[in-house]
């Protein structure tokens, strides 16, 4: 991670402290950082909690997406939720007291999100939440707890969809909520253009002109429950009878997936891949099988059908528009239509304008 921290030069600017820690947050932070670099009034410092720490889960995204080097990088990943979040809270509070940001920016619904939001709110620093208002209404998901709490601590809530705005309204949050579209659409626009030229993954795997499905599995609700993981594995193995499956595996499940699929040559289990490789695989695949939030939308951005390996999704418009289907849904296929909510890659610019406007910059 050698990118210079170019957005951090003018100390008179409004100072945004961004807290990231997990793979999808690096991806979302990239287009916002680019938009901040275009702004004449903002500067940004990035803190990396170290929730994700393997090079293939972290550094690859900073390098490919040209994200500036974090001003602090901690090593606070692993362990139970309470311990991890507690360690982050302590470290982030110290950082915020030292750096005295004007606002703290958090993304999504991970333990790094709630730690950043809570540390800032307790210090009376305004919290800005990107990907606000999403709900699965399943409180067994750690992510649902994190996102509900982060939303209720936030001053500005950047909602990717109309449903997200409505979810917040139903919880009494209207002030500060803005519909801005999905920053993942911005990230995809950037990656699509680069991946064509830079990624060699399809030829490296020897699957040019071969049909394949792209699969990821990592959710705690799937991987922490042995019988549920068995059911998902069976479902994926059944699909592999019809089409080969490329499965870049998250470190939390790679060991178990290797032992499950060791005799199944139709399943190509590989290490996590970088963002450009992921988009090359998305562009080349026939369909997607995933329990990832981000990948459900990226499948749509590549106009590939998706089967979501969960019992509910926060991204309801992908289902309504006929591009996505829950794995246990046997209802007839819906007609496909376009999804307007996510925007055309202009979400980061909208977010920056709203911040500048809100703080009178
Ligand atoms: C976290 C988020 C989840 C998000 C996902 C993105 C929470 C509660 N969950 O889940 O919402 O969808 O990130 O990928 O914050 N590990 C490694 N190397 C790494 C990272 C993780 O080996 O670089 C292993 C460790 O054993 C770790 C386990 O994966 O204990 C789980 O990591 P953790 O960050 O707790 O949860 P994720 O499943 O990654
Ligand atoms: N991703 C990636 N390489 C991989 C797996 C996923 O670049 O090997 C990207 C994926 O394209 C998406 C993001 O990581 O943009 C999703 O992250 P993840 O599934 O870990 O988290 P979630 O979105 O479910 O929170």
Structure, briefly:
This protein is an alpha/beta fold. The chain has helices at residues 23-38, 59-64, 81-99, 111-122, 142-153, 162-170, 183-198, 201-204, 220-223, 226-239, 254-260, 275-284, 293-301, 316-320, 347-358, and strands at residues 14-20, 42-48, 72-73, 103-107, 127-130, 156-159, 177-179, 212-216, 244-248, 267-270, 287-290, 306-308, 324-326. The protein contains 15 helices and 13 strands.
Question: What keywords describe this structure?
Answer:
about 350 residues, alpha/beta, 7-stranded parallel beta sheet, 6-stranded parallel beta sheet, 15 helices, globular, binds uridine-diphosphate-N-acetylglucosamine, binds uridine-5'-diphosphate
Overall description:
The protein is an alpha/beta fold. It is built from 15 helices and 13 strands. The strands form two sheets. The chain has a seven-stranded parallel β-sheet with strand order 3-2-1-4-5-6-7, with helices on both faces. Strands 10-9-8-11-12-13 form a six-stranded parallel β-sheet, sandwiched between helices. Helix 2 links the parallel strand 2 and strand 3. The radius of gyration is 20 Å and the shape is globular. The two termini are 31 Å apart. The model has no long low-confidence stretch (mean pLDDT 96).
